Amino acid sequence: MRFLLDACAASRSMHEALTGQGHDVMSALEAMPRASDDELLAAALAEERILITEDKDAASSRWYA
Description:
The chain is α/β, with parallel strands linked by helices. It is built from three helices and three strands.
C-alpha cells in the first residue's frame, strides 16, 4: 500500500513500521513541510496514497468517498 504521513503522524516508528511491512511511505514533513490540509489530501489522491493524520480538524466529510 502507499501512504502519506501527515506531519502530526509522521513519527519515525510509524514510518519504520509501515516500510518494514513493505509499504511505500512518504512523509509530509520531508516532501511537503508547509502544505495545507487540502494540499495534503490533493497530493494523496493524485499519488493514490492513503493519508494518515492525527489532525482531527483536518478530517471533514468531504474527505471521505
